Amino acid sequence: MSEHITQKGLFSSLSPKASFFLGVGSALVIAFVVGFFVLLGVVLKKGSTITTAGTASNNGAVATAPTAPVPPPQADASRMAPITDSDWIRGDRNAMVSVVEYSDTECPFCKRHHPTLQQLVAEYDGKVNWVYRHFPLTQLHPKAPKEAEATECAGEQGGNEAFWKYVDRLFEITPANNGLEPAELPKIAEYVGLNVSTFEACLNSGRWAQKVQTQAQDAQNAGGTGTPYNVIVAGDKKIPVSGAVPLEQLKAVIDSVL
Hints:
The protein is of the alpha+beta class. It is 57% helix and 11% strand. The protein is built from eight helices and five strands, in the order H-H-E-E-H-E-H-H-H-H-E-E-H. Strands 1-3-2-4-5 form a five-stranded mixed beta sheet. The radius of gyration is 33 Å and the shape is globular. The N and C termini lie far apart (97 Å).
């Protein structure tokens, strides 16, 4: 009780002006403390949001990797150019189902996908064929367009068989991601039994560049946004399948239309 009286006496002894400034000062101190903790809470909450968003983004990157048969946004496979005798086709040309692959020879996913489609054609034994078309992602792999031309030069000289031998060997030796040295292109030609001088003259002429560009545009018209981009064709049905999907997932789609 005596302490309370002493404090009261102390405040009552101050002048009105001093009491006013003391009150204002106390209010400012309280406001500063409250504001500090409010601001601290906002900063901590924002940091938590950023961390969560970053985790979601990382998870999204894994989820959107080309490993599932999901059509790309606004895919319109019906706009794909029809399969003709000028296409490079592996397997029976009269097969019930065609897998049209738009591929980039420097794409690591295409490199992984290539043996999958080899196995697919072999397992279906005449029921499924594989149509190869060019879709070089020039901004990522500036070497890919010339490599695509090289495959065309192989086909020009040695026909369908030479084309596929050349493509198989190219995917076998390329490290992908724009890693194949241009000097390897004539070596591949020699490896698959082509006349190297004739091959080099063709490649230097650039006469297949327009075909490569046209097929790349066709891929985009059909809904392709990355490689490999596949369109499974069965009669009037055209089913887009984006990415280097596992064999069993491709088979599930094909079995549904056989």
